[in-house]
Design goal:
mainly alpha, 6 helices
């Protein structure tokens, strides 16, 4: 029969999971809106992402404080300890995804008032790939699923290739079309933000593997 201390810790761990999933939902929503703003040339949607970023930052602070208090008072061990430490790593990556969503939104607002560039397909593919990576990483955390987390790790290489395709296309275009340099540079910056979202989603997947299996695959996820 569990002791009162164990039961209380289980409740606190459950609360922590819910808080992290809430922050993940905010980050996913911000990324989704910023991508739609970019593809649909929608400045109002981009402004929503910028205005709401404080909510993600505030949640990171609240969860960080909650997790630190749990570490200090409950003195967890084994999987409970890994879960709390893993959550603290995950929220850092979620906060950065919020920042990258703001970066994409800011690029979107500028590009919405310029003529469209002819290379939207690879950027759209990259956007869809990175959004799917984030959603899969969140689901892996929610379900304690290391195999799903491993799928995110394996997807990162594809995202990197798409980012390079966007970069090569736009550099070639800038050589021939000098007036398009400003638009091209801002599109490249948006593409780089997307590539970083892929990296941050991979970091979250690495945290899931650490929590569930106790294996630290940081910086070597692809060889796991």
């Amino acid at each position: 029969m569990p002791t009162n201390v164990q039961t209380h810790l289980e409740q606190e761990i459950s609360s922590l999971r819910i808080k992290v999933l809430e922050m993940a939902a905010y980050a996913e929503k911000a990324l989704d809106k910023s991508l739609r703003a970019l593809m649909e040339r929608n400045s109002e949607l981009a402004q929503e992402v910028i205005d709401k970023d404080y909510e993600i930052n505030q949640l990171e602070c609240e969860i960080d404080e909650f997790a630190l208090r749990l570490l200090a008072l409950a003195q967890p061990v084994a999987r409970d300890l890994r879960f709390i430490v893993g959550c603290m790593r995950i929220i850092v990556n979620l906060e950065r995804i919020g920042d990258e969503s703001v970066n994409i939104a800011e690029r979107s607002m500028l590009l919405a008032h310029r003529p469209p560039l002819p290379f939207s397909k690879p950027l759209e593919q990259l956007a869809n790939a990175c959004l799917e990576m984030l959603r899969t990483a969140i689901k892996a955390f929610k379900d304690d699923d290391p195999e799903l987390a491993d799928q995110v790790c394996n997807s990162d290489e594809h995202a990197n290739e798409l980012d390079l395709t966007v970069l090569r296309n736009l550099i070639d275009y800038m050589v021939e079309q000098t007036p398009a340099i400003e638009r091209s540079v801002h599109t490249i910056l948006a593409s780089r933000s997307l590539e970083r979202v892929g990296d941050l989603s991979t970091n979250i997947a690495e945290c899931v593997i650490f929590i569930v299996q106790g294996v630290d695959v940081k910086h070597r996820c692809h060889r796991f």
